[in-house]
């Protein structure tokens, strides 16, 4: 299939946050406990909880590489120090931070719509894990900035996902209600166990029943997007730094690769959240799909050995309620076999360097994996559009 005449609906787009994304609406009592900017050694650095944050090398986004600059690196086709592969850096383009400029570029790229996720924001909840009230305040402020600058369903094309922290169940319900009242179709959370005042808890703990019931009733899409989750702490068990820094991975850190998203869905299935809320819809974004095969093997074994503990085959529950956006380098044919083509989403990660410069080029990967024209159209457009009711 060629891209002639094909339009796409992208399940993974990003903005580069404005400098005041976390500060414009911060409640005064939390201002010094959350995000601040400071000059350190002649550079503008981000302070989170009073500590210099290293999640991104340049959180001001003053100089950026082109979209897709590292595509060949992530395909495993080139190697070497990542910094040498970025190419020429340039100031941010208008479409990275302005929604009307972005709409024009989306049309040029052949996109009818897209889900939008944070760039900096997906690394900030863990940065404030020792001050959970401040973390919740930071994301309340962030979500109100996001509503200001991008909107949650702007012109039915830009669907920005407010970030929900589950660290306090009542606060999570309140924030979800606010987001729904503002028209949110999709929300984003981090995978893995949830850090609460009572310690780590499963997202399927019954303490979250009201939250999941509300999401179920509203049929809002609950997205788990890759970022700095609790599992990053496991790296420290192996004499490595557990501080996440983008594009800095030692060989061991890359080999360990703990997959919080697989365990998250295992918990939501095994502890009954998805069974109790059959209209819940989840999307796994920028987590790849290599984790799905081992999870399905484990789910099959669990169901065969202890079927009496399950209301149905958990693989069928997963296929009904979970959509997955694979990386372009993943085994696309295997994923189709496991979850069905109707549950696959194209996510380009545009305009990030590790994504695709041309979202429509994903059709080549699908065609190479044996997808026919009708299946390609589902993955490239229809699945993502229908998931959020477009």
Report on this model:
The chain has 390 residues and is α/β, with parallel strands linked by helices. 34% of the residues lie in helices and 14% in strands. It has helices at 71-74, 99-109, 124-127, 132-149, 169-181, 209-218, 251-256, 260-270, 273-276, 292-305, 314-321, 332-339, 362-368, 373-387, and strands spanning 8-14, 35-40, 43-48, 51-52, 111-117, 158-160, 186-189, 194-196, 199-201, 221-225, 281-285, 322-324. The strands form four sheets. The protein has a four-stranded parallel beta sheet. A three-stranded parallel beta sheet has the order 1-5-6. A three-stranded antiparallel beta sheet has the order 2-3-4, with no helix packed on it. Strand 3 and strand 4 form a beta hairpin. Helix 5 runs parallel beside helix 6. The longest helix is centred in the middle third of the chain and has 18 residues, at 132-149. It starts with 7 loop residues before the first strand and ends with a helix.
Describe the protein's topology.
Layout: E1 8-14, E2 35-40, E3 43-48, E4 51-52, H1 71-74, H2 99-109, E5 111-117, H3 124-127, H4 132-149, E6 158-160, H5 169-181, E7 186-189, E8 194-196, E9 199-201, H6 209-218, E10 221-225, H7 251-256, H8 260-270, H9 273-276, E11 281-285, H10 292-305, H11 314-321, E12 322-324, H12 332-339, H13 362-368, H14 373-387
Parallel strand pairs: 1-5, 5-6, 7-10, 10-11, 11-12
Antiparallel strand pairs: 2-3, 3-4, 8-9
Helix pairs in contact: 5-6
């Amino acid at each position: 299939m060629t891209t002639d005449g094909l339009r796409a609906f992208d399940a993974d787009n990003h903005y580069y946050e404005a400098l005041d994304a976390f500060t414009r609406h911060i409640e005064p009592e939390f201002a010094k406990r959350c995000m601040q900017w400071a000059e350190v050694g002649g550079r503008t650095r981000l302070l989170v909880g009073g500590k210099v944050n290293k999640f991104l090398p340049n959180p001001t986004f003053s100089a950026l590489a082109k979209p897709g600059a590292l595509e060949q690196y992530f395909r495993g086709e080139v190697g070497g120090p990542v910094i040498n592969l970025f190419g020429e850096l340039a100031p941010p383009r208008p479409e990275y931070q302005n929604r009307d400029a972005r709409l024009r570029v989306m049309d040029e790229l052949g996109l009818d719509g897209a889900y939008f996720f944070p760039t900096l924001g997906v690394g900030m909840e863990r940065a404030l894990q020792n001050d959970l009230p401040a973390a919740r305040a930071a994301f309340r402020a962030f979500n109100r900035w996001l509503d200001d600058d991008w909107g949650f369903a702007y012109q039915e094309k830009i669907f920005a996902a407010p970030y929900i922290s589950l660290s306090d169940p009542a606060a999570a319900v309140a924030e979800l209600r606010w987001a729904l009242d503002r028209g949110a179709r999709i929300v984003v959370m981090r995978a893995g166990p949830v850090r609460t005042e009572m310690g780590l808890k499963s997202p399927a703990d019954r303490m979250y029943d009201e939250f999941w019931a509300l999401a179920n009733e509203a049929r809002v899409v609950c997205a788990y997007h890759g970022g700095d989750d609790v599992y990053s702490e496991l790296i420290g068990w192996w004499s490595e730094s557990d501080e996440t820094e983008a594009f800095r991975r030692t060989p061991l850190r890359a080999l360990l690769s703990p997959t919080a998203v697989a365990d998250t869905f295992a918990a939501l299935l095994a502890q009954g959240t998805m069974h109790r809320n059959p209209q819940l819809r989840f999307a796994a974004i920028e987590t790849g799909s290599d984790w799905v095969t081992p999870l399905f093997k484990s789910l099959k074994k669990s169901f065969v050995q202890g079927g009496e503990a399950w209301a149905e085959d958990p693989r069928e529950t997963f296929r009904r309620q979970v959509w997955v956006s694979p990386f372009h380098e993943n085994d696309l044919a295997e994923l189709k076999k496991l979850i069905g083509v109707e549950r696959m989403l194209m996510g380009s990660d545009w305009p990030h360097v590790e994504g695709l410069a041309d979202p429509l080029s994903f059709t080549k990967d699908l065609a190479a994996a044996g997808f026919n024209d009708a299946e390609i159209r589902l993955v490239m457009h229809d699945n993502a559009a229908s998931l959020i009711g477009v």
